[in-house]
UniProtKB/TrEMBL annotation:
SUPFAM superfamilies: Nucleotidylyl transferase (SSF52374), P-loop containing nucleoside triphosphate hydrolases (SSF52540), PUA domain-like (SSF88697). Residues 326-479 form the APS kinase domain. Pathway: Sulfur metabolism; hydrogen sulfide biosynthesis; sulfite from sulfate: step 2/3. Gene3D superfamilies: HUPs, P-loop containing nucleotide triphosphate hydrolases, Sulfate adenylyltransferase. GO terms for cellular component: cytoplasm. It comes from Rugosimonospora africana. GO terms for molecular function: adenylylsulfate kinase activity; ATP binding; sulfate adenylyltransferase (ATP) activity. Its EC number is 2.7.1.25. This is adenylyl-sulfate kinase.
């Protein structure tokens, strides 16, 4: 809303909410002009018009909805009839205010959540984060571009020689200026942090035609077509006239023309990348897949120079070191008495003997006493306890350590949250289901918990009157009714060694 000014006391007293990642990315694009002509999140009128006509109510073409959801409990404090009481402050994940939304439209979307439509206004200067010099607005970038055609490339993965050859060929064919847009709202689809992606692209800059490089807050919405349409519109806002497809679904949606790159292969006769069909099969080398590149990095093997420029390889090796040098969360889950803690201690002892890993053990009982004192055994508190464990473990792994976690963690959603925290920290995550049957766990009953639960003196006992959601995504399943403690520890160590997380040659026997 043009000219929308809010008193400081209104912002101070307004409710706050940290949106999801893609909503924060959408917010940044709304604020910067990347979603021009949009100035805010769509309300029901706009959504209805888009669904019926593919246009906004004023007739402006726009491809897909740009929406915001917030918990209904948060938006209850808003009053759409009072301009001074309908403001919601949006924050980043750390709670720092980013923008205010004038919630002119609020409606129920799903259980416990409400949609919010309205104009947005930035709070503060938005000047935080790495590579600020590359985070230019569309208006600033368009002012830098020379007249004529502009070839846009959205690089959501590192640029290896085949991609660089495709870019060079397209730039020569188009005879236009090259604009490289690097998505920095999240990491890459392969798990590389956004900052590492930027470094790897900059490392390839001397292999490109002269280019303008810009960091753009693009994030996936979980819908390939929607993402493609929005990316095309953002590219157009930055001045792109022709957009080079990167292998994903690419659609113009009223934006720049999309160019499909040639399929290239490496010609071993002269070391050049050219059209695949132009090279006899015996001299042809195909580009490595993302999985092949990851496997080489995980093992600590060098990326072949015919495929990856050395400067790019150095950046990728720095940010994806061999697994045995990378942070790891080993998360053991199972019923009380299943043997989780015993296995975790055995693995920790073995690794302390070799000295190859810095190990932190987060046992369920110890965490309850030291980190989660006061929490009950309700579902909400159990989830909070597991999230706390997951956060601490991810921080341990973020700095290259190995965290061995051994909570019951009965609910799948909380375990998935712990996995996501580890992956967000750039670490590995190994889920181990200690699947010892309830009858065996109850027969052991070292703590007397099952006996109290059966006698009605204890409620919320997992396996008795509270469910245990068995993992369907476990990386390893151990049953201590069939394995000795030593065998279970060896099985977990063997699994870690085969996956490259530890050196198999250094394990005690």
């Amino acid at each position: 809303m043009s000219g929308w000014v809010l008193p400081d006391e209104v912002l101070r007293d307004a409710p706050t909410y940290a949106p999801r990642r893609y909503e924060l990315a959408d917010l940044e694009l709304l604020l910067s002009g990347g979603y021009a002509p949009l100035t805010g999140f769509h309300g029901r009128t706009e959504l209805s018009s888009l669904a019926r006509r593919g246009r906004l109510p004023d007739g402006t073409s726009w491809p897909v909805p740009v929406t915001l959801e917030a918990p209904t409990a948060v938006v209850r404090a808003l009053d759409t009839n009072n301009p001074l009481q309908r403001v919601l402050v949006l924050t980043d994940p750390e709670g720092a205010p980013v923008a205010a939304v004038d919630a002119t439209d609020i409606w129920a979307t799903r259980d416990g959540m409400s949609g919010i439509g309205g104009a947005v206004r930035r709070i503060g200067d938005g000047g935080h984060g790495p590579f600020r010099r590359l985070r230019r607005s569309p208006e600033e970038v368009r002012a830098l571009l020379p007249p004529g055609r502009v070839l846009g490339v959205i690089t959501d993965r590192p640029l290896h020689r085949p991609q660089l050859a495709q870019i060079a060929h397209a730039a020569r064919t188009l005879a236009g200026h090259l604009l490289v847009l690097i998505p920095v709202a999240t990491g890459t689809p392969d798990g590389l942090p956004a900052e590492a992606l930027v470094r790897s692209v900059l490392a390839a800059r001397d292999r490109m035609p002269p280019a303008t490089v810009v960091a753009v807050p693009l994030a996936s919405h979980g819908d390939e077509i929607r993402d493609a349409l929005l990316r095309a519109r953002v590219a157009g806002a930055y001045g792109v006239t022709h957009l080079l497809s990167t292998g994903e679904t690419m659609m113009s949606g009223g934006g720049p023309r999309v160019i499909i790159p040639r399929e290239l292969a490496y010609d071993s006769r002269d070391g050049q990348w050219r059209g695949r069909d132009d090279i006899p099969p015996r001299f042809r080398r195909l580009a490595l897949s993302g999985e092949e590149i990851d496997n080489l990095l995980d093992r600590g093997s060098p990326l072949p120079e015919w495929h990856t420029p050395p400067a790019v390889a150095r950046e990728l090796t720095r940010d994806r070191p061999p697994r045995r040098h990378r942070g790891l969360v080993v998360f053991l889950t199972g019923l009380s008495g299943s043997g989780k803690s015993t296995i975790a201690r055995g693995v920790a002892d073995a690794l302390l003997e070799t000295g190859e890993r810095t190990v932190t053990t987060l046992d369920g009982d110890v965490v309850r006493r030291e980190l989660s004192a006061g929490l009950t055994f309700s579902k909400a508190d159990r989830d909070l306890n597991v999230r706390r464990i997951g956060w601490v473990a991810a921080e341990v792994a973020r700095h290259g350590g190995m965290a061995l976690c051994a909570p019951i963690a009965p609910y799948a959603a909380a375990r998935a949250a712990a996995r996501q925290m580890a992956e967000d920290a750039g670490a590995g995550f190994v889920l181990v289901h200690v699947a010892t049957p309830l009858a065996i766990c109850e027969a052991r009953d070292r703590k007397g918990l099952y006996a109290k639960a059966r006698a009605g003196k204890l409620t919320g006992m997992t396996g008795v009157d509270d469910p245990y959601e068995e993992p369907t995504d476990a990386d390893l399943v151990l049953d201590t009714s069939e394995l000795t403690v030593e065998s279970a520890v060896d099985s977990l160590l063997d699994h870690l060694a085969r996956a490259g997380w530890i050196d198999p040659r250094r394990q005690p026997r």
